[in-house]
């Protein structure tokens, strides 16, 4: 299988006041198309930073990230926004939905940004919301939805542009265990049915163990990689 | 992202914060209202003044007076030869000279009136220069060649605005004329009074022209007779009627060339009106500039509110960017919000401005109506009441709208740029 996402020698240091805090120290990682990869580790290990760098939200100090063979460091802000729009879908711990928009409008938003006609956007958004099991809730605003439902809307939004890669940052972190598992199962199903590549950041080992591959990150360094069966538990 | 969708999103954002949007827009409304009210009143003022001046000064009549404004009145007097020379200038229809006699007393039986201005004219030419001013209450223009007839202005004939006239056409009227008999020094010149009897050929209707020459106060006697009485072939003023008022300035130059420098002055109504127009323009510009300051204040209001808005929506901006919004899209969204506030302010401000100007004009006209001026010799408005009607100008309306939008967008630029430059990761972390 082809490598769709690759980090090469990525370093990132944050400046907190006068103190330099290294978040990523020389991380190299390749993700293959259709893979479900979990990046797991304790909090402060640099997982989220790695995810942001992989998704072109943040620039590394050194090294580069390649999406479909294109190095992100060569792209300007607008080009990287274009890559995020077309090739990547983001799912966040705190859902990050726009509170004033309905579920449907939230899901539509990337299509609006991609200049898809309103009619087509509505149809596609409804379709994706059906896929995540929310066809009954499309006209509800985020505040009228449960945490699990909000995360489903967020996943639907991440999928709407049919990106090759979905990056999820602690997608179960703000949900109760049962709902969390529903979300994991949903992501696994989408990964298997649609062949989309998932990179999920989590501090929960049991969530991570559902991936094809577990990448253990600590102190900004990959400590180990473990292949697993990828079967959903429990 | 399509413009229409950006505009729709911007509009939704504004609706979401109704009170804030209303207050911000109110600032723009006030600014545009002030600009439009002052501009339309100024425009109305200009038109009223210009109309009045055009009524007062026949645009096609130039007046040549002796002396100049720089060198004082000269003793330059006009002769038939000069008048003839002027007539020959291209564009001149008629040139006619008049002799100013000063005030005279008229007697009709036991009645007596005084006329402040007695003017000796060549009736045929003079009436041709001012055809609109000679509407007769009784009688008509004197027959050509007669040297014993006069024409009386309305106020001379009705000294106390009474219904009954001092004289009607056909009456014989005695005019007592004062003339100065020169004497060699050291003896002072002596004034002597001579009485002459004339037949009234016609009496004029009331005109109340608002210009400098109000014939209501004038009495006209034949030039030939006056020359005999005063034993002088010279005259004091020349009126020149030109065929095209637009050429009057060029013709005035040609006339000036006939006289020694600084010996005469020519009153060109067009120049005068242009000057007044220019001054009104300046005043209008000045007032509108002051009004524009309020629009700038409104702009600062927009900047302030948008800066707050950007801070509040930092996370939202982060989300938009994370899912692929370009910097330009974020910039366009915020600028569209500013432009919408400007447009909304304009749409409300322009009609409000016109409304206000009508209200002001109504109040002013009511106020002025109570203060009607009494007539004086150098008389001005009598037949009309002062009334400045605001004038709607599409240019001003469009200009004010555009100005409002431009100010809004310019002041929105800083916060909008700030929003567009936000780092997505930082913005997503913002609580």
Which radius of gyration of chain A do the C-alpha atoms yield? 17 Å
CATH homologous superfamily annotation of one domain in chain A: P-loop containing nucleotide triphosphate hydrolases
Helix proportion of chain A: 25-40%
Shape type of chain B: elongated
| Distance separating the two termini of chain B | 27 Å
Average pLDDT figure of chain A = 89
Report the oligomer.
heterodimer
Task: Please state how the strands of the largest beta sheet of chain B are arranged side by side.
Answer: 2-3-8-5-7-6
Q: How much β-strand is present in the residues of chain B?
A: 15-25%
| Rg result of chain B | 34 Å
Q: What is the N-to-C succession of helices and strands of chain A?
A: EEEHEEHEHHHEHEHEE
Strand order of the largest sheet of chain A: 6-7-8-3-9-10
Tally of helical runs of chain A: 7
Topology pattern of chain B, helix = H, strand = E: HHEHEEHEEHEEEHEHEHHHHH
The unreliable regions of chain B are 371-383
- Morphology call of chain A: globular
CATH topology of one domain in chain A: Rossmann fold
- Proportion in helices of chain B: 40-55%
């Amino acid at each position: 299988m082809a490598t769709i996402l690759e980090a090469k020698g990525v370093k990132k240091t944050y400046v907190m006041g006068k103190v330099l805090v290294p978040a990523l120290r020389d991380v190299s990682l390749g993700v293959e198309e259709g893979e479900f990869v979990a990046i797991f580790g304790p909090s402060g290990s640099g997982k989220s930073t790695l995810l942001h760098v992989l998704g072109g939200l943040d620039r590394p100090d050194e090294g580069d990230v390649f999406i479909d063979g294109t190095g992100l460091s060569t792209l300007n802000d607008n080009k990287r926004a274009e890559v995020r729009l077309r090739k990547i879908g983001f799912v966040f711990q705190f859902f990050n939905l726009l509170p004033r928009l309905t579920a449907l409008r939230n899901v539509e938003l990337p299509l609006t940004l991609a200049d898809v006609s309103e009619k087509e956007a509505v149809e596609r958004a409804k379709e994706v919301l059906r896929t995540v099991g929310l066809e009954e809730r499309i006209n509800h605003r985020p505040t009228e939805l449960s945490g699990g439902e909000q995360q489903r809307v967020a996943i639907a939004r991440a999928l709407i542009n049919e990106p090759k890669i979905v990056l999820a940052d602690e997608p179960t972190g703000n949900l109760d265990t049962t709902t969390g598992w529903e979300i994991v199962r949903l992501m696994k199903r989408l990964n298997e049915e649609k062949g989309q590549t998932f990179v999920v950041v989590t501090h929960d080992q049991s969530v991570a163990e559902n991936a094809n591959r577990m990448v253990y990150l600590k102190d900004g360094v990959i400590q180990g990689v473990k292949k697993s069966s990828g079967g959903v538990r429990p | 992202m399509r413009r229409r969708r950006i505009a729709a999103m911007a509009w939704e954002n504004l609706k979401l914060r109704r009170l804030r949007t209303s207050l911000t827009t109110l600032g723009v409304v006030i600014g545009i209202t002030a600009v439009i009210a002052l501009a339309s009143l100024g425009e109305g003022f200009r038109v009223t003044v210009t109309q009045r001046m055009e009524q007062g000064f026949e645009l096609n009549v130039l007046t040549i007076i002796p002396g100049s404004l720089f060198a004082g009145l000269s003793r330059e007097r006009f002769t038939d030869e000069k008048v003839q020379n002027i007539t020959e200038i291209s564009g001149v229809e008629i040139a006619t000279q008049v002799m100013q006699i000063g005030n005279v007393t008229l007697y009709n039986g036991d009645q007596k009136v005084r006329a402040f201005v007695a003017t000796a004219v060549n009736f045929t030419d003079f009436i041709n220069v001012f055809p609109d001013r000679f509407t007769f209450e009784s009688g008509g223009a004197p027959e050509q060649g007669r040297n014993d007839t006069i024409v009386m202005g309305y106020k001379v004939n009705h000294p106390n605005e009474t219904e009954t006239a001092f004289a009607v056409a056909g009456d014989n009227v005695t005019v007592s004329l004062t003339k100065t008999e020169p004497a060699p020094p050291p003896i002072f010149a002596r004034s002597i009074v001579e009485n002459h009897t004339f037949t009234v050929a016609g009496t004029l209707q009331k005109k109340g022209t608002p210009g400098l020459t109000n014939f209501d106060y004038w009495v006209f006697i034949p030039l030939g007779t006056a020359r005999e009485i005063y034993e002088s072939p010279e005259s004091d003023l020349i009126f020149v009627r030109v065929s095209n008022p637009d050429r009057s300035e060029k013709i005035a130059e040609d006339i000036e060339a006939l006289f020694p420098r600084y010996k005469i002055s020519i009153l060109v109504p067009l120049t005068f009106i242009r000057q007044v127009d220019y001054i009104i323009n300046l005043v209008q510009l000045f007032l509108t500039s002051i009004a524009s300051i309020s629009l700038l204040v409104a702009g600062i209001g927009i900047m302030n509110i948008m800066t707050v808005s950007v801070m509040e929506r930092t996370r939202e901006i982060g989300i938009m960017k994370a899912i692929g919004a370009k910097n330009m899209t974020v910039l366009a969204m915020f600028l569209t919000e500013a432009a919408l506030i400007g447009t909304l302010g304009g749409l409300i401000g322009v009609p409000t401005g016109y409304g206000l100007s009508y209200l002001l004009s109504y109040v002013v006209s009511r106020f002025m109506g109570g203060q009607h001026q009494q007539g004086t010799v150098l008389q001005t408005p009598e037949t009309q009441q002062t009334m400045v009607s605001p004038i709607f100008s599409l240019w001003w309306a469009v200009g004010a709208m555009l100005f409002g939008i431009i100010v809004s967008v310019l002041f929105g630029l800083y916060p909008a740029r700030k929003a567009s430059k936000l780092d997505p990761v930082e913005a997503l972390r913002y609580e």
